[in-house]
Every structure is written in C-alpha cells, then in structure tokens.
Amino acid sequence: MRRKRYERFRRAVIGVTLSALASGGLLAATTAPSTAAPTPPTAAATPTTTWTVRDPAHSALTARLALDPAGELRLAVTRDGAPVLAPGRLGLRTDRHDLTTGLRLVDREDRAVHDAYRMTTGKELRRSATARETTFAFRGADGARLGVVVRVSDDGVAYRYVLDERGPVTVTGEASAFEVPKDAKAWVQPYATSYENERTETTAGAANEAEPKECAGDTCSFGYPALFETGGTYVLLTEADVDGRYSGSHLDHKDGGSAYSVALADDAPVTSPGPLATPWRTAIVGGLDTLVGSTLVDDLAPPSRVADTSWIRPGTDDWSWLSDTSSPGDLDRQRDFVDYAAAHGLEYTLVDAGWKASWVPELVRYARARGVDVILWFDWADLRTQAQRDAWFAKIKAWGVVGVKVDYMYSDSQSTFQWYDAILRDTAERHLMIDFHGATIPRGLQRTWPQVMSVEGVRGEENGQNPARDVFLAFTRNIVGSMDYTPTWFSRPNRQNSLAHELALPVVYESGWTSLGDNPEGFAAQPVAERYLEQLPTAWDETRLVSGGPGRTSGGERQAVLARRSGDRWFVGGILAGAGATMEAPLGLLGKGTWRLETIADHDGQLRRTVRTVTAKDTLAVPAVTDGGFTALACPATRGRTDCARPVTTAPATTLATDPASVTAEAGGKASFGATFTLPEGAALRDVRLAVDRGRLPAGWTVTGSDVRAASLPAGKELTGHWTVTVARDQPGGTVEVPVVATYAHPAGGNAPRVHVEEVVRVSVPLHGTLYASDQPFLAESNGYGPVERDQSNGEAGGQDGKPLTIGGTVYAKGLGMNAPGQVRIDLQGRCTRFEAHVGIDDETSGRGSVTFTVLGDDESPLATTGVLRGGEAAVSLTADVTGVHTLTLTADDGGDGKNYDHADWGLARLTCAD
User: Fold this and answer.
1) Is 642 exposed, middle or buried (0-12, 13-18, 19+ CB in 10 A)?
2) In Å, how far are 487, 553, 653, 673, 675 from 718, measured between CA atoms?
3) Fewer CB atoms < 10 Å away: N or C end of the chain?
C-alpha cells in the first residue's frame, strides 16, 4: 500500500512538473529516469547526498543539489569546476507544512528540453534554447510532498518548487537563498517597488552600505536583477515566470553575510489554486558576453498566449512629456509632435498625462492620415477594474488608438500580478499594445504576452542623468527584458553627458517601443542624430557585447559597447562614464567581405559623422570625451553603396471631404451623405478603399451604399462614394459620429500598415422624451478630484472607482458624481424644457464636506441654485426651466471649507425634452 502511495506521488509530482514545463514552452525531447535507484520512502537518514545537473554540452555549468542528514536542501553552482555560488538553502513553508527540513528523496527524473520560439521584441527575435532539467521528488517529515525542478543551460541555472496539493495552496515563505562569496564584486540596487533607486558598486558582503538604505535592523533588501562577479565569472540573480499565482520577490541580505535570501513581496503569504509551480529562482551565469546575450528569463516563461501577432509592431515614438510636462494637454502641441514623427518616419506619437478625451479622436485622425499611430498614457487607477478596462479600451479602440502606456502600479504583490494578468488578457483581446511604466521589472512576460512593448522598472532619464548608471544598466536591468528608459533629450538643460553618449543609449538599451525624449526643435538642432534615429530599429535579430563592463578600467572610466543586428545592418552603441578615453570595438562580428561603417562621435560640442570601409579584422577606435560615447552603423559594401542609410518613406498629404459634414435624422429615419478622397500630388496611391466603418456604428444602425475601391489612384483623380444610414428606432437623442475611412497601401511597402484617413459625418438625432444627464455626452468637464462619474459617486482617483450614489440613506441608480469644484456641459439642442435632480453630499464622506449646486443656461446665466449643503443632510430637490437652452452647465462649488470630502451627487439628474 505504501508503495502504491509512493507511485501516485511520483506520478503527481512529475505530472505537475510536466504541466508547468509545458506552460513554459518546454518540449521534452527525452524522458529518461536516472540510472541511480531512488531512495525508498522508508530509507533511514544518511550522510549528505549530492546530485548533479549539468548543462547539455557538459562543458561549463553544473548545479549540485545536496540533502544533508537533517533533510535540508542546498544548491551550489560551479563553472568549469570553479565555485560560483556556494550551497544555498532551498525549501518553502505553507500554512500546513514545513518543507525546509526533514526532507528525503523519493524519485528523480531527468530530461533534455529543447525550445524554439519567436518574439515580437527583444535582443533576438528567433530563439532556440536547450537545457538539462531534473525533477527531484521529496517527502517531508509529516509526509507532505515537494517537487524541486532544477534546470541548467549554457547561460544559467534556475530552480522552482512544485506542490501537487489540490485545492488552495498558501505559501507563507521560502527558505530559498543564493550564497555569494563575501568578497565578490557587486552591483546592487536597494529595493523599492518602483525599481528607481540608483545602483551601487560594492561587494557582496558590504552591500548593506548601499544608499538609499532599504533596511529593517541588520537586514537590507535589494531588487532584481542583482549582479555579482567572482573569479572572473558573473552572476545575475533574478526570477522568471511570475504571474498572479504568486507574488514577486526580492533579495534580503544580513550585514556582512554571504546569503541573499528570497523574500516574498511585503512579506505576505500567497495563495493559489493547487497544484502550484512557483516562479523560477534564476541565476544567469558566465562571462559578460553570455549575460548580455542571455535569453534565459524568456526561455523560462510560458509560451505566447497570442496566436496572431500580426497587429503587434515595435517602433519609435516621439514623446513630449519629458521635455515639456504640460504639453500632453495641448492639442496643437501634440500636432507638432505628430508632424515631426510623420516627417521622420517614426511609427508613433505617445501622448502622456494630461490628454483630453474631447480632442484625442481628432488628434488620432490627424496622426493616422500622416502614417503615425497614437499611444495613450493612463493612470492605472483608471484601469484597475474590469468595468474600467472594458469601458476605456472599447472607447480608445474606436478612436483608433493602437496602444497604452499604463503608469503608477508600484507593487510586487500577488494582487498586482493578478491585475497584470487581467490587463494583459484584455489588451490582447482588444489588439492593444502596452507599455508598463511605474512598474515592476519584466520576468518573461514579453514572451507570454507579445503585445508588451516595454517596461520601465528602472531609474530612467526622467529621474535625471548619471553616466555610471547608464553603464551599469547595460549589464543588469536591460539583460532581463525591454527597458523604457526614454533617452535622447539632447536639449536638456545642464545635460550630464555628451551628445554622442545620449545618441548611443537607444542602441545600448533594448526597448520594443523607444520613446525619444526631446522635442521637434531639439531634434532639429541635431541633424546628424536625426538621420541616425530615422534608421534605428527597435527589435533585433542578434545582440552582442563588443567590449566593456560595469567595473572601472585601468584608466578609471567605465565603458559599455553593444552591437545589435537588424537584417544585414549592425548598429553599434558605446557609452562611457568618466574621463575621456579611446573606446575600442573589435569588428569581428561583421563576417566576411568589406563593409561600410558610419561612425558618429562628439567633435567640438557637436556630432560628427564619418564613413569608411572596414573588414572583420579591423578594430574601431573612437576618442570619446568625458561622459561621452559613439554610435556606428555597418552594412555590406555593395557596389554603388556610399552609406548605410535607407530611404525614409512617408505618407503623402491627401484630402478626404464629406458632403454634408453634418446632418439631422429622427430616430428610425435616414440620412444620406457622400465623401471624396483625393491625392493632390505625388506618386499614385495603391490599393485604395473608401468606405463607412460599419463596425463602429451604434447598435441597430444600418448602412446602404457600397465600398469604393481603386487599384491605383493617380494624383488629381477623385475617389467618391455615397451612403445612406438608417438610425435605430430606439436611438436616444444626441450627436452620433459616422466614420468615413479611406485606406491605402503605405508607399514604404513591406510590412508597413495601411495608411488610414478618416473624417466623420455628424448625425444629429433630436433629443426627445425623458433623458438622464449621465447618458449624455459631455461637451466639457472638470472636477476637483478624478473625473466626473456617471451613475456612481466620485472615488477621487481613476474613472469608475466610485460607489452607488447615496444621499441621506437613499440610493440613486442614475446620476452624476462630482468632487467640488466640478462642472459638466451638455448640449440640449434647444429641445428640452425641464431639468431636475436630487442633490447633496454623498454619505461616503461620513458627514463631512460642504457644496453648493448651480444650474446654468446659455452664456452661463443662472437658472437655479442651492444654498450650502453639508454632509449628512438629506437630498434637496433642484429643478430648473431650460426651455430654449442649448448648452446646459451643471456646477458644484466648494461650500467654504476646502474641496476635501466635497463629494457632490446629482441623483436622478434628468431632462424632459420634446417628443
């Protein structure tokens, strides 16, 4: 009977492991039990037993798992026989079992794993990984079961735990630790959930001296990835495959010690449905060239959950916030950035905090007509719930926005990772790309969710400049995934590095979306940089470390030189921190033949470009200024090729006019209109289509009239279409925008997306019957905290974060939730006669706050008002005669004691309009 239970356990652990490995994309090529017989379940305690797992080629890395007489596990790593990581504790605790001691082996299985996959972003788009993986099955002193999976590849060692329990599993902590020699050089970052502290060069034993101190007593916390060097071997510690089943973690270190222990986020337990496979505790091991080229973190992650990735497009965006924080709120200034992106072949414009929903659709139409797509910034508070995401994503997708930048998560908790799971699923379903800012570090999520274009998790350029930090990041944070550093603010006041150093950063750092930090005027002052950035890809076929390292050279400076290949062109970026020195880049990576090499370096305070012919036997030597650098671009020296630049092909100016631009139709009625698309001048457009976007019409609306197509549209020739829309019979009053769209093949050809030119016909449906204010579009809105809410109270942060509208114990299903001072404007078309609402301060303020409510007509003439209403009072009925009013304004003002707690509710705010 005991033997049967043992066999069931062995199969369960192996089954859970196989499931976890399958979710990680690992294809088992062989499954061969160890030739050594497993220890039977009844075996007595024995002296320390050690098992080894070697890399597939048996050439360099070996992991040694040891079980001592007390039943405690330790894992050590060697490279070429030399110790790299000393034996470090393994094990975990659940709310029911202590699986850190009293363990005994019951089975071991070995397998070779081979994996091939494609990425949409990253240092290498086509990946191939081979590893040796061993699953050890243990029993605890109380009979509880623990699986330990150890994996060794040519670029590192990783392990994870497997619990085969059914039902919820609660892990209260891990014994996991990495033992690093105390005298090992260390480059560590004191832990913060923003990952925005500076890194410090120190030793493993003295790391707790790093500032700012993130410590409790004699124990300090450090964030991933943490870099160490011992005996010429580098070790980068991090974790992989973290999602909502678990929390993120960090490393804890006691003063003067050698152990770096894994600590769960907030020291809080995690609960997950069983069976559970924990994240991989990961050590990337080797020379610096191995670390820089490593894909281990992605190799350990689950495979892509997005079958069709054709809509995902890495690229470069111009971003106004860094150089002018108020500019995202200025439509005209955002047009300037769109114009710049269009002129220089940039794929995107990123509109950061401050944009207005009232003008974003207009900006998107303006940008798309010029071959530029728009990315929108969001505070995560606006996307925290499923309802918020459903509402916003549907809206911005209809506007034509292609991606979002989401900010301010600042947490490694399990609940936050569950939120990541949800928003990643939602953006994949909506075909929206995403950049996480104010976020944790990547742990392989770009493999699983290929729409993730970049992740901050770094002290980037918006937090000031530090040339030494720039070098450190090349060997730490950017190794584990895309890094949203936002470089190239050339016109920055009091810039702390050279122009060439700044230009090199988007080559040295990999990011699927690279957000350029300067403004159009700043870029225009650097035409050499503009030309280089026009050529620069953001996803790569190959990445190599050319020279440099995080430590100081004999001359006292630090250097990093990386090369990245796209097709047949190599882009090289070199950065230096410290006094000027000659930077060298051996060109052996170029391969056979002769090559054109363009080099850009600092010269008399400006950038200078030179071109020469080289071979793989040459070494590029560039004199760099203090905190300087260089960039280079190499391409095969084919006949007639004088440089490596490729033409920048932009979308031509076109016109799309609708006739009429606006029309009126009753509910159930019809409206007819036409549209004409023209190319004023230039080469003929190919594969042109003119149509009404039927998918974006309200439910119940229909369209008659055919799409119009032309295989070729020469300059001066018109493409014209005519359509009739039928309004739904139950359509409420208001204005509906009917999109008319002309698309054509981008002149650049290849994989460039079609150019989208759009105008809208505004169909005005007369207001009729009884209408709720919360169902009407706002002409404008403002609020003391957060947005004005529809049918809920004001939560003071993100949209839709309020509660049911409640005044004096009465709950109102419909209405508006403001925080004074707040205001909305609504178009009444001159068709309504009466406004009414039950107003007061929401009960959620617990009797605090004071507000006055006012109804204004055209020219802001007062129609009705209340006195000062206070928290805890019953609702007051507010009515107004709005006969003939076109623009209705509802205002809530502070009652005299400040805006805090002024949650002003307009319960059942409704309008009576003509039938």
Assistant:
1) exposed
2) 43, 66, 14, 16, 10
3) N
Cα 47 to Cα 42, 72, 140, 586, distances in angstroms: 16, 12, 17, 52
358, 386 in Cβ contact below 8 A? no
Q: How confident is the model at residue 1 (pLDDT cuts 50, 70, 90)?
A: very low
618 catalytic per annotation: no
Cis peptide upstream of residue 821 (ω within 30 degrees of 0): yes
Query: Contact, 124 vs 540, CB < 8 A?
Result: yes
518-544 residue pLDDT tens: 999 999 999 999 999 999 999 999 999
pLDDT tens digits, residue range 193-237? 999 999 999 999 999 999 999 999 999 999 999 999 999 999 999
Angle at 453 between CA 448 and CA 457, to 5 degrees: 90
| Mean pLDDT of the 463-474 span | 97
Q: How far does the chain reach from its first CA to its final CA, in angstroms?
A: 81
For the stretch 300-356, pLDDT in tens is 999 999 999 999 999 999 999 999 999 999 999 999 999 999 999 999 999 999 999
Q: What is the pTM of this model?
A: 0.92
pLDDT tens digits, one per residue of 673-696: 999 999 999 999 999 999 999 999
> Nearest-CA neighbor of 191 among 159, 234, 220?
220
Q: Crossing angle, helix 331-343 and helix 360-368, to 10 degrees?
A: 20
Q: What is the pLDDT of residue 31?
A: 35
Q: What share of the chain is helix, strand, coil (3-state, %, to 5)?
A: 15, 40, 40
Average pLDDT score, the chain? 94
462 is catalytic: yes
For the residues of 196-218, what is the DSSP string, one character each? Answer: -SPPEEEESTTGGG-SS--EETT
How do residues 28-46 score in pLDDT, each as one tens digit? 333 333 333 344 444 444 6
Given a cut of 70, is residue 104 above it in pLDDT? yes
With a pLDDT cut of 70, the percent of the chain lying above it is 95
Residue partners of 297: CB distance under 8 A and separation at least 6 = 238, 240, 282, 284, 442, 443, 444, 480, 481
Spell out the residues 6+ positions from residue 224 whose beta carbon is closer than 8 angstroms to its own. Answer: 237, 238, 239, 250, 251, 441, 480
The pLDDT assigned to 57 comes to: 81
Q: Measure the CA–CA gap between 42 and 98, rounded to whole angstroms.
A: 19
Catalytic residue from among 339, 379, 462, 618: 462
φ/ψ of residue 446, rounded to 5: -75, -20
- Per-residue burial over 595-619, b = 16 or more CB atoms within 10 Å of its CB, e = otherwise: bbbbbbbbeeeebebeeeebeeebe
Taking the C-alpha atoms of residue 366 and residue 380, their distance in angstroms, rounded to an integer, is 27
Query: Is the separation of the CB atoms in 237 and 207 below 8 Å?
Result: no
Which residues lie below 8 Å from residue 618, measured CB to CB, with a gap of 6+? 587
In the DSSP assignment, the letter for residue 281 is E
pLDDT the model gives residue 751: 87
CA 180 to centroid of chain Cα atoms: 32
Among residues 560, 561, 517, 516, the alpha carbon closest in space to that of 538 is found at 516
Max CA-CA distance within the chain? 94
How many C-beta atoms surround the C-beta of residue 551 within 10 A?
A: 14
Q: Which of 125-134, 592-601, 615-624, 789-798 has the lowest mean pLDDT?
A: 789-798
C-alpha to C-alpha distance for 57 and 152, rounded to whole angstroms? 10
Kind of pairing between the strands at 433-436 and 403-407:
parallel
Cα distances (angstroms) measured from residue 873 to each of 200, 788, 792, 849: 57, 22, 19, 11
Residues 6+ positions from 415 with CB-CB distance below 8 Å? none
Catalytic residue (choose from 124, 252, 347, 407)? 407
Distance CA 80, CA 94 (A): 37
Q: For position 46, what pLDDT does the model report?
A: 66
Contact predicate 265/213, CB 8 Å: no
